[in-house]
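Hi R.,

Here's the chain you asked about this morning:
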Amino acid sequence: MATPLGGTPSRATDLASVLGVERSHVTRQTQQLMRSGHVTRLPDPDNHRAYRLRLTGAGRDTVERVMWASAACMQWALHEWTATDLASPAELLHRMVDDFLAHGHAESTDGRLSGSR
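And here is the predicted structure, written out as tokens:
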């Protein structure tokens, strides 16, 4: 799905779904981001009652700075790790993602996630 990070304006409901939060949370955050000049609201061409959100230049700059700072912190924290040290958790994370994708969010008949006790 395209998000404002990808340059394509997105609906608040789509962002809420992707983020796993209620739409009202996205709405509150959007209002703050609009006031600070990081997000703009555009009419939705497919639904005259809805709108789409897009990062402004300032929003894109902020995202880039946050991503750069995150990467720099990660590099600093792991600078003494060897390639072998880094490979083990990476392999386990890939395995975990593969298992999540393979099993989805299937629920058992009693409402618990499959595999839970």
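One quick note: The mean pLDDT is 84.

Cheers,
M.
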